[in-house]
Amino acid sequence: MQEIKSFSVPSTNKGVMQVEACLDWLFTEYKLDETLYGNMFVAVSEAIINARLHGNNNNPEKQIQVAFFKSKEELCVVVKDEGNGFEPTKIKDPTAPE
Questions:
Q1: What is the pLDDT at residue 57?
Q2: Residues 6+ apart with CB under 8 A from 68
Q3: What is the pLDDT of residues 21-40, one digit of tens each?
Q4: Which of 11, 21, 32, 45 could staple 56 via S-S, CB 3.0–4.6 A?
């Protein structure tokens, strides 16, 4: 995969909008399938908002790092925050019956 673009944004509404604007640019620049756009927009927005709220605890001084990668068949978005993380195996399955 080839890295297309990488950057950091603050954990703010403006930072979220900057990432969403970059996604718009990416789809226009690379003439990507429009049917994919809605799904990617929702997924990337959700990842950025989660990084802001849960990873960085809404701290505007903390950064969210974003990188876009593309191959002939795939588009990949990597989102990193400055949070402590968590151990996925210690989280209860939210789909399991109570």
A1: 93
A2: 3, 4, 5, 6, 22, 26, 75, 76, 77
A3: 998 998 888 888 888 888 88
A4: 11
CA angle 60–25–17, rounded 5-degree value? 25
CA pair distance 19, 76, nearest whole angstrom: 14
pTM: 0.81
Is the distance from CB of 77 to CB of 50 less than 8 angstroms? Answer: no
Under DSSP, the state recorded for 55 is I
In sequence order, the β-bridge partners of residue 79 are 66
CA pair distance 61, 9, nearest whole angstrom: 10
Both tokens of 3, joined, read 């890295």
